Structures are given as structure tokens and as C-alpha cells.
Amino acid sequence: MASKIQKSCAVCGKPANSKCTGCKTDSISRHYCGAACQKNDWPTHKTACKAAQDMRLEKSLARVADIIQRGYYEFRQNTWDTPILMVEDRDDALVITDGVMLDKSKYFISFPQHMVTSERTKAAMLCAWMCNEPLAFMHDLVTDLVKGLDIHVEEVCLSLGRIPRKISYNSPHGGSDHNWPNYFHEALRITSSRSKKQWVIDISGAQYGITRVFWTWGAYVDAYNVNVKKIMALGFNKAMIKDLSDIIGNPSMSYGVVGVVAEHMNEASKKWAIEHNISLSDLLTMEEEEFRQAKDELLQNMSDAVRGFLKANKFDKEFQAAKAYEYKYPGLSGRKCLQTTAKY
């Protein structure tokens, strides 16, 4: 029950001293003289009440999705490690021609901004071939943001039956790699504990031309003919990436190094909240202008923390050791990565 107000009971018309605390919206919230009338009114009020709760929850989740995707894009750009020779941004496909990872002189390199022809291209490049990594590296921020929401969050492995456009990698030594026609992908699925309504946060869908990050589950399934292959607990991919990071060599080094940077980024977000005497979940209930300012400040703080950390930590020694291992045992770390992921 909420605070006392001078209203009439929605059932009997007597003076009301309470209102429904479920919807918490003055325009539809019903006032009552007592518990008996509120109980009697529930069959009439419950549809509007649950709809209001879902609308409020949906607004909060849309904010989570916005922060997570923007945060990941910044993180990926700051931790860019992929040498690219050419990018073809066609209407039907994004075609990337890779350089040779072992030819790099250092682990982290500059993002090839000169190859970007549009924001669509940039978004696709930033999450190209990245499906479970965003879920792993942004896990802590997700859990901090949704803390207190009456929801269930899970990581889902999906097969997309149709997509706006394909993505392919061409090797500088010939040959290509792609994941069509199956289009395997991973995302977050959120379920309201009360209404059971579901939504999806697709952080890395831009690689397929899916630029919208937040959907109702039904609309997402219909749009891309989604088939759920596997349902995993929140944190599944973080645990898997941690196991991969323990493997010696290249390319598995990327899991460990980027994971260390991600931990630093997530610590920076927690520190920012403490310095502002709030919890990160408080961003979800702020007024719109206050939210925009706080969101931009948080994301800038996280990005600055990553850049500062990488300026002080080049990981040159680790990179040279990983290259030496790969030259001595060609492909071994990659095979170990496949063996590890198969266990999951």
C-alpha cells in the first residue's frame, strides 16, 4: 500500500487512504479504502496494472541496452587487435580482408577509422565475429545495472534464419570464413518475473545489419526467424572466456589480455558510482535529462579508464611470448580453444 491521499475508493466510493503500489502510475493507479476493496477490484485492474509495470520495466531495460551497447563499442575500439587490409561494405554483405595476426609488432593496434564509410560500417566492424565476448566482458556492468529489477536474465545461443546482410572474412593467404547459412549468434534474454513478458538485448547484432539493440522477444523472433539453440545462465560466457584465457599462446592470448582490460573497465564503473554516491541501477529511474548526462559521464569514465590502463600496460612481453609459442607450436592454442569451448 502507498501513502495516504484524499481520494475516493475505486470500489465503494468511501474516502481512500491507499493506492495500488504495483503500477505506481497516477494516471491509472487505483485508490482504495482498504484491502478488501483492493482485492475485489483486482480482476478489473490487473490488466492495466501489469501493463504499466511492463512499460516501466521496458523503459529501464532499454536504458540498460543503450549503456551496454555503447559501452561495448567504446571498449572494442579501445582494445582493437585485428589487422585489417580491406573492408567492403555492400548492401548485402560486409566483407573483411584480414591481415596476419602474427605480423603485428604489438598486441593492441589503432582501429582502422580510415576504412569506415558510415556509422553502420563502423558498428559492424566493432562487433564482427564477436558474439559471446560482449556478453563476457560486459557481464559485470549488466548485473550492476539490473540489480533490484524483478527479472530473470539468461544468455541465449541463437540461430538466425534470416538477417539484413551477411558477413565474411577473407584471409590474406586465400580462402574465406563465414557463419552463414546458419547465422549463429548470442544475446541476452530478459523475462519479467511478474508478467513473464520477454525482451532481448542484442549487443553485437550490427555485424548482421541488426542495428537495433533492444527488442521485445516476440518481435525479434519474428523479424529474424530466431531458433533458440541453447539457454545459459547469466555469466556463462564470462566463465568460458576465463577458462580460455588460461590457455598459452596466440590466438587464445586475446581472451586473457582483453579480459584483464575488461575487469579494469568494470572496476572503473563501480568506482564512478561510489564517487557519485549512487548505485549504477539508479540510472534507470532518473529523469530523462539527468539520465543522459549520467550515462554519458559514466561511459566517458569507462573509456578513459581503459585508455589510461592500456597506455600504462602495453602487454608487449606477453604478446611476444604468445607469438613465440605459436611459431613453435602452430595452431596448438587454437585447437585447445576449440576443445575448451566444446566442454561448454
TrEMBL record:
It holds the Pfam family zf-MYND. PROSITE patterns: ZF_MYND_2. This is Zf-MYND multi-domain protein. It comes from the Eukaryota. It comes from Pyrenophora teres f. teres. Residues 9-49 form the MYND-type domain. The keyword Nucleus does not apply. InterPro entries: Znf_MYND. The keyword Membrane does not apply. GO terms for molecular function: zinc ion binding. Keywords: Metal-binding, Zinc, Zinc-finger.
